[in-house]
Amino acid sequence: MSAPTDVKYANIINGERVGSDATAPVYNPATGQVIADVPVASPEDLDRAVEAARAAFPAWSARPIAERQAIVSAIGDRLEEHAEEFMALLTSEQGKPRAMAEWEVYGSIAWFREIAKQELPEEVLEDTPERKVMSRHTPLGVVGAIVPWNFPILLAVWKIAPALVSGCTIIVKPSPFTPLCDLRLTEIVQDLVPAGVFSALSGDDELGKWMTSHPGIAKIAFTGSTETGRHVMASAAHTLKRVTLELGGNDPAIVLPDVDPKKVAPQIFWAAFQNNAQFCNAAKRVYIHDDVYDAVRDELVEYAKTVVVGDGANADTQLGPIQNKPQLEKVTEYFDDCKANGYTFALGGEIDNEAEGWFVPVTLVDNPPEKSRLVAEEPFGPILPLLKWNDEADVIARANDTVWGLGATVWGDDLEAVERIGRQIEAGTVWLNEVHQYSPHQVFGGHKQSGIGAENSLHGLAEYTNHQTVCLNRVEGTVA
Fold first, then answer.
1. Is 258 exposed, middle or buried, given 0-12, 13-18 or 19+ CB atoms closer than 10 A?
2. How far is 107 from 423, CA to CA, in rounded Å?
3. pLDDT tier at 3 (50, 70, 90 boundaries)?
4. Do residues 436 and 268 lie in contact, with contact meaning Cβ atoms separated by under 8 Å?
5. How many angstroms separate the CA atoms of 241 and 238, rounded?
6. Distance CA 74, CA 33 (A)
7. Residue 244: which of 12, 407, 452 has the closest Cα?
8. pLDDT class of 476 with cuts at 50, 70, 90
């Protein structure tokens, strides 16, 4: 099924479709062609959305949680009814092959349903004839959700579902590169939620700045780069907004000397290149023990040659394009830097600038310096450094020598060694002999400059609430 081409996209404000004077094109990254036009929201559009969300908040937050949970679960059902449409639309605007689009859409459905089962109960701290003390969670108010372009549906759902379950209202700002799925999702569920509870605004980077500084928004939930996250935090500080920041990473993968190179190579490949490496949790530095370095490198090269890169609309495609032209230009800088410094390419290295669409070849760089840009930074594209190690303490220190701490993986047959090393990595999620396993009930967040706060699990749900302590004096005659 192909994405519909006759859909007219609009902002959703107070339950209604709203256009704008300005519009912006949306491109298919596999072809470079315009596939839709979307509105560009104005400050007045944001004011109206915030006003509607604030007006809807008292009744929505007072609604029994069981009713809110049922509505969030029903949103998941509605998405499932439109699953084919969304998979096709996701491939068109983001570039994902069918398998990855299916993973994201059905993962989003599961997230709605599972988060809808969560609840933060009141805690009774003291209960005597004289006094009762309770601790409870109260919703913050209006949430501004700023969503990235790499997983536009799923990472929106990670914000929408807990916000609504907690009793908050929400305004979603999709990435200007991938706004279609989020605008469409917001529109098709308006009959399930009261007006103003769940809105969406399409806009450019200015809209994000207006949201982070808007006095009517109580919280910003942001996924994106660390650099932008710093600006979000600074802007939100003026009104002391709560923030959840899920930011960048430079995830290390450590390969022990006892691995079977042929078996581990496909796992490492997908740890690094899933979603064409446009993944905050992609393995971005692979440390391979000297004893197996050559064998693992060679198996990675051979496996990579079997992977089909192309238009996600084609049935055999396994990796799609870079999602947008600015990101293509950024990734190209790393190729140019490797060439300028004389690094060795084990595979790839040449970008076809005449190709239709924004494609980059899978590229492996053979043991570049530890301080090279490719190792020290986050390319967010399919170019991966392979590095040698032979001392456990040294490789742990190298893995931790970064401002980021989002995720990591360790691979080996000696499970005691795998766990020993994994426990010393400074990262929010450490996978041991697996990768990219997530759950609505598994907390996700970064260490160091990879983020603040958490998403998913009851910890993530609590991020949309204030703590409130309620104290009751039961002794008669104490009140005049």
1. middle
2. 28
3. low
4. no
5. 8
6. 35
7. 452
8. confident
Write down the number of H helices and E strands in the chain. 15, 22
Q: Convert the pLDDT of each residue in 73-105 to its tens digit.
A: 999 999 999 999 999 999 999 999 999 999 999
Tokens representing 387?
């590095």
In DSSP terms, 289 is beta-bridged to: 389
Q: Say how many Å lie between the first and final Cα of the chain, rounded.
A: 73
Supply angle C-alpha 111, 112, 114, rounded to 5.
65
d(CA 216, CA 251): 36
User: Mind spelling out the 3-state secondary structure of 125-175?
Assistant: EEECCCEEEEEEEEECCEEEEECCCCCCCHHHHHHHHHHHHHCCEEEEECC
| Crossing angle (nearest 10°) for helices 226-236 and 205-213 | 40
Average of per-residue pLDDT values in the chain: 97
Torsions phi, psi of 62, nearest 5? -80, -15
Catalytic residues: 246, 280
What distance in Å separates the CA atoms of residue 271 and residue 284, rounded to the nearest whole number? 9
The position carrying tokens 């950024």 is 330
> Residue 437: its pLDDT value, please?
97
Question: Residue 181 burial by CB count (10 A; 0-12/13-18/19+): exposed, middle or buried?
Answer: buried
User: What is the model's pLDDT at position 479?
Assistant: 65
Please state, in angstroms and as integers, the Cα–Cα distance from residue 380 to each residue in 29, 224, 329, following that order.
16, 11, 11
Instruction: Please state the rounded mean pLDDT for residues 191-203.
Output: 98
In this prediction, residues 97-114 reach a mean pLDDT of 98
pLDDT tens per residue, range 205-240: 999 999 999 999 999 999 999 999 999 999 999 999
